């Protein structure tokens, strides 16, 4: 019987068992009274993915072999201090991906390995049968997570419900935990012993606030948003740089385009220069002509003024009389026009009022006509529908309907019988065959995976044997090489460090190099008892030496021997008082080991107790001295019995008598025969190679079988689809026949004809009304047209009269002004006449001079070329001529416009691509900014909402004990202050939590935790030593409060760890698990 099978002993009923190989034993028992028949009724209600179903611990802390089966609702783990409650909580954190620091127990996971063991294993079973399971086709209703911890490394294995390995990746574990919202590093959901005590003692506002953020995950969200904000700033800086680069690229393209234009225009430069010179010459002519025209215009204007002034002076009296008569005549005409305007305006208003009334009447007639037309259309449609229906029904016959009904019923019956007797049984048979083939394929694939696993295992063993053979061969020259090829260099570095004074004493190691066993028959079992890990270990004198040695180890890859700190001594312990006196035919393990160093021997005594272990070849002797307490020698801890082959028996004496069978590997370190060891290893390697080769044939055959099964599955699926389609067609025919409606012609046609007659009568009445309304509308329209014409005529007449009046007024005003000027300005006219005549003489002289200049410039310009009109000014033309003249002397040496065009095209394409990237970055930044704004606003609202919910829940829980209190959240100062007044309504009562008693403080803490639980959701909640500082009254209130929480929330799993014993009423949703008292030394 193997050791693994012997050690696992579970109590019936789903309790917990812990059978240990060490002297200290613990056992967890179950209170069966807490379970009732009503448990089955809540199976469906409390199912949820992520709950803990089972935990199995092997060599973890104080547990050698512990199995815990959890209830899906409420669990109480009861046990005194030292019984291993907190070890279960630490195993939960480590097993579900948490770090060793999270447990507050150690910084390294290897520290959780039980003393004397080299590895530990944590197995956790998660529920996957609730709503939204994780990949149920792969894992099934359970997910099994196994974490193995060794002295040098660790690993994860994720299995399905059937035990099949699905993954060994930590990332897959994180995905599963994230999918089920499992957060073992959140103290709100998993509160360990140290955190609980610290929390109970302090209740600091700042730490309370951090716990609130941690529980609601607001701190994680805020951190992610802060990272996004930094990312947004980086992108904005990148966008600015991109914008500057685009601007430079555009300027570069413009510069190259100007150069191209200059290259292309150089050939025409001379023509352009000549044209510009001609334009400049004629531009000068144009300037003189314009000046000459301006002088001529001024001269004509002053001539006209001269004539007017002379006329005014000569005809003053005559003009005055004529103007006065014209003014009186115009005023009389204007008065007459005003009277006509008033008359026509009255007539226009009367016509306008009448026209508005007719417009209103026209709209009323049109609305009435539209309503009547709609009624007529509806009636005509209803009459047409009735007539059509009557015609259709008249063509049929009731006998034909009944005959059709009977035919359809017979057809439906035949189709149903065909479907039930032929198609459905065939589909079921095909499904069974398909399932059988699929199951066969799955089994064969499982076999293939098992073969591949064994092949990998054998290949690893073959490589291991090859390495061992090489090490053994090398150790023939240097024995220390058996511990690894790096060991000589490592020992050299250790001696060098000691010689430099870095080490207080020279470390001892590897330990196996100091150990010899004279009796060859016990050599294998003694090496296995000591363990290869301990044989390869090093001993140091103090913690400082340990640190130096660890630094030396880091220089060598894959070199991490065990380091044991022990005070060095020159003398071996005196163990005569605790040594076993070996009976006949037995040997004491202490006497069989020869050790060349006292410190190494003392280490073996401390760690293995070799002075209390006996060796024998007789199973009967071992059973005799261990199975009866009177025969047990004093100080005996165990007996090792050598058996033939590669195994030994291990007996533990009464009163804890038990026996184990252990596999013994050949000695690899202690006094080995090199040739025999090499021969043995080569035989093992050859045997492994033969086994591996045999699996290759099996694998090939199995793969061929799987290909054949896949082909059969495909054929069955095609046949299934064909039959399902046939079944679907039959069911559609049946539904079509069942949905046929059969008419009944009894009195329906007569009623319809009567109804149609009523509709026709109403239709005639409406047509009569329509005819009358149209006549009235026509009369009104005619009258409207007539009045509209008159109204338009009056508008034209009023406008003409108004225009005449304005003309009269303008004429009168102008003549009155002229009359005043005639009376008042006679002397001024004479002065002005003299001034105007002087100006005229001056302008005539200028006109003659300018005419000579025009003639001279025109002759000069004509000699250069024909006249060209220019839009540029003289200065602009002169600047262009100077620029072109300079360019004429700077003709480029290399003239290649095509290369310049290609370069510009390339730069434009690059610019277009960069502008596209720029727009993409700009849009992304805008989207990120909008998202960040929304997220920060939502986070603020969420924080306020959670604070309010927390305050309400906290006050409600305090009222259960008639406590008064408040929970003040200050998001600016990042504090959460609890104020509680226990059963005291005095306004001046102290409300600080530090002034509360231990029980009141514990109840306040529990109320705060429950308030946090009400704000968030998690599959399970673990609370360690929640009642450590409380009294019996508050403990009872808190326990009742926690149980009530579990009763109200069946979808959550609660586990409470307490050192106090529990006495609860029998409830179907509560399970009490008790740990046995630890043995005290």
UniProtKB/TrEMBL annotation:
Region (Disordered): 1-41
Biased amino acid composition, Basic residues: 1-11
InterPro entries: P-loop_NTPase, Rad50/SbcC_AAA
GO function terms (MF aspect): ATP binding; ATP hydrolysis activity; damaged DNA binding; single-stranded DNA binding
Any GO BP: double-strand break repair via homologous recombination
Keyword Transit peptide on entry: no
Keywords, alphabetical: ATP-binding, Chromosome, Coiled coil, DNA damage, DNA recombination, DNA repair, Nucleotide-binding, Nucleus
GO-annotated cellular components: nucleus; site of double-strand break; Smc5-Smc6 complex
Coiled-coil zones: 232-392, 671-705, 735-853
UniProt main location, coarse: nucleus
Compartmental location: Chromosome; Nucleus
Rad50/SbcC-type AAA domain: residues covered: 55-305
Lineage: superkingdom: Eukaryota
Compositionally biased region (Polar residues): 17-41
PANTHER family: STRUCTURAL MAINTENANCE OF CHROMOSOMES 5,6 SMC5, SMC6, STRUCTURAL MAINTENANCE OF CHROMOSOMES PROTEIN 6
Similarity comment text for this entry: Belongs to the SMC family. SMC6 subfamily.
Protein name as annotated: Rad50/SbcC-type AAA domain-containing protein
Higher taxonomy: Eukaryota, Metazoa, Ecdysozoa, Arthropoda, Hexapoda
